[in-house]
Amino acid sequence: MPKDQDDPMTGPAHVAIIMDGNGRWAQQRGRPRLFGHQAGAKRVREIVAACPAHGVKYLTIFAFSTENWKRTQAEVSGLMLLFRRYIEREAKALLENGVRVRFIGDRNRLDEKLVRLMDDLELLTAKNDLVHLTVALNYGGRDEVTRAAKRLALEVEQGRLSHKDIDAETLSGFLDTHVLPDPDLVIRTSGEARISNFLLWQSAYSEYEFVDTLWPDFSADEFGKVLANYGARERRFGGVIA
Ligand code: FPP
Fold it and tell me: Which of 63, 99, 171, 202 fits a 20 to 30 Å CA distance from 46?
């Protein structure tokens, strides 16, 4: 049973976004890929700010996947530096604007300084409740489920849990997202129609919206239109309309 069966006419409570197209956006302008990522970071600020007006309580964004390490060293280190700078620059505004920030993904491979900033920002904003922003960083859906399965196996091995007690809810409780509702709507920008290992388990019943706009051009206005489009759909969660 999905955790978040909201009224479809009221709009999605949890929106997840695959922010794709930064590289192409920069390329079209004859600029390095990192220029596109910087422009993308500005859009993150704008989209987070637009959430309360649209009743979006949870926003989850895909910032760096477990597969993104395959990019050039220059792009990877540039992105890591961008994440650090973003946290340093945005922390105060996020706190003042009621945004609670969480990070999901495997922190083990991330730079120590970055992890410290992530931990501090989570702590700093822990009392906020207006918008719950979750940033997926070194995140992969399969990796998340694998890590959860390992921790579950350890619980069984050490006698704290019986295999008979394991159901979907138990497994959900071991995922990075265990405190979040499932996403109602997943948006991917840049015209690609793929999930790319994002929230595989959690998006079992989500609606998908693929838009052609490249992420650095995805405005608050367009975000509003996509949300309005969602409001017009019916969600059945595998059942039938009453
Ligand atoms: C995908 O575009 C984008 C990424 C891999 C990085 C996403 C990062 C940001 C939007 C930067 C800011 C984020 C935060 C949280 C501050 P791509 O490079 O795959 O584009 P392409 O498909 O056109 O090459």
Answer: 202
Ligand 1: distance of its center to the CA of 230 in Å?
24
Cβ 202 vs Cβ 24: under 8 Å = no
Residue 135 near ligand 1, beta carbon < 6 Å: yes
**Burial, 128: exposed, middle or buried (Cβ in 10 Å; 0-12, 13-18, 19+)?**
middle
Main-chain dihedrals φ then ψ at residue 132, nearest 5 degrees = -105, 105
Tell how far the Cα of 238 is from the centroid of ligand 1, in angstroms.
33
The tally of domains found in the chain comes to 1
Verify whether ligand 1 is closer than 6 Å to residue 41 (CB atom): yes
13 CB-side CA count, 13 A: 10
Q: 186: domain range?
A: 14-140+182-231
Q: Is the CB of 58 under 6 A from ligand 1?
A: no
| pLDDT (tens digit per residue) in 70-89 | 999 999 999 999 999 999 99
